[in-house]
Amino acid sequence: MFLSVFDMFKVGIGPSSSHTIGPMVAAARFLDMMRASPFDFRGVKASLHGSLAFTGIGHATDRATILGLAGFEPDTYDRAQADAALKNIEKTHSLSPKNLPTLKFDPKTDLIFDYETNLTGHANGMILMGTDAQGDVILSQVFYSIGGGFVMTEQELTAGKDTDEGPPVPYPFKSAAEMLQMAKKSGKSIAQMKRKNEESRGGAANLKQGTARLWQVMNDCINRGLETDGILPGGLNVKRRAKGIHDALQAERGANQPAPHTINDWMSVYAMAVNEENAAGGQVVTAPTNGAAGVLPATLRYYLDHVPGASQTHIEDFLLTAAAIGGLVKYNASISGAEAGCQAEVGSAAAMSAAALCAVMGGSPEQIENAAEIALEHHLGMTCDPVKGLVQVPCIERNGLGAIKAVSAASLALRGDGTHLVPLDSCIETMRQTGEDMSVKYKETSLGGLAVNVPNC
User: What fold is seen in the domain 17-159?
Assistant: First the structure.
């Protein structure tokens, strides 16, 4: 099993990897299918199902789908161009994707939120359709947005979750047990094994440049969040708090010695800055999802800015270690809130971050695996119940607490020798089973939990 660091961490836009990035990616794939087809297309339609329908408005799924069908892609997304394109589409009721004829598309009638029909493959389902001059469907494809911006067709999902068809990699571990065994046999760290795998596919230069860009986008996102105030969009009137908290923390630095627990506020404010940017539709990196995008950058920023002896040279090891753990969670369980609740999003992000921090602080492979297990274990059962379908409440603060748990888990693991009772593999399997048993009300549908108990929502 090989899942690249650049699959786990993808540059995209807020507010949701599964509900915003995924549908945009699916639309881009459908356009390619249309370009390869012999049919004479004159229009397109789309229907959203399951969680994509129930929380689609709050997650900007409609906007993402329309822009994707117009030819926009997450990695090169430009907000000003997107806003202008949407206005033109609403005015002309047509799309003009590259290398295709002008396509009829009325956002009010050709994009359907289907709350009744559940597609069986995954909670995040959508159907994209190409039509002829009479409006008849001549090409149709079911897509599933399976979390973290990953998209699969119905056929790909049916064929199995291991869709990697590339050449073999040097260290192909599918479980934490295999990962530890390979580390012990090879004498390499988890990051070193992951690096060898990445370099066997893309080369050392691409890895270095790519990971540097990932951290640059993550860190820029933190800084924008720390510098921006105001009210987040969506109608909840949630105030952006990261700037005010950060300003206060900076002011306290020159005053009396702050209370020791203030370090938790630093971790939280970095994460909140990212998730406020995400909620505002800004540029973020899936880590492993948008809803959990603040945990890992906050943990890495905490390491770089607050841990004595921290070094920028460890950033690549941090990201590689995190990607290795994230790959195990995705392959053996889920990183999708619509499939397994927030334990699959913030829980996975905390496990990845704890492992990565443990690694750059000198932890052994056994301690790193322990750190990931501790962090994930104490998110088990966490529901995904966004108020009004927006990635704001409880998501923004939850990322801050996820970062705190990640740091605590890494610290606890470093105090031990790596031996512990619950293996990471068992914890991942428990998360998968818990997600299966969890009521759909608590899996990113906004039909239960805080979403129905907060007044005026």
Answer: 60s Ribosomal Protein L30; Chain: A; (3.30.1330)
